[in-house]
C-alpha cells in the first residue's frame, strides 16, 4: 500500500492532473489528491478489517 501511494502521489502522475480543469468546481489536481487520499484510507481500512477476522 505504501508503494502504491508513493506511485500515485509522485511528480510524474501529479503532473498529468495539473490542468486548468474543474471537477464539481474543484480544481482537477486537488480533486485527484483528495480522491487518492480517500481511496488509500479506504483500502487500508479494508485490509485492517480483513486481518481481524
Describe this structure in words.
It is a single chain. This protein has helices at residues 2-8, 11-16, 28-52; strands at 22-23, 26-27. 72% of the residues lie in helices and 8% in strands. The chain is built from 3 helices and 2 strands; from the N terminus they run ααββα. It has a domain at 1-27. The chain has a two-stranded antiparallel sheet with strand order 1-2. It starts with a helix and ends with a helix. It is mostly helical.
Summary, kept brief:
The protein has helices spanning 2-8, 11-16, 28-52; strands at residues 22-23, 26-27. It is mainly alpha-helical and 53 residues long. It has a domain at 1-27.
For the terminal residues, how far apart are their CA atoms?
20 Å
- The pLDDT mean sits at 93
Largest sheet: 2 strands, antiparallel
Strand order of the largest sheet: 1-2
Number of helices: 3
What is the global morphology? elongated
The percentage of residues in β strands lies in 5-15%
What's the gyration radius in Å?
Answer: 14 Å
Share of residues in helices? over 70%
Helix/strand/pairing class, anyone? mainly alpha
Total beta-strand segments:
2
Order of helices and strands: HHEEH
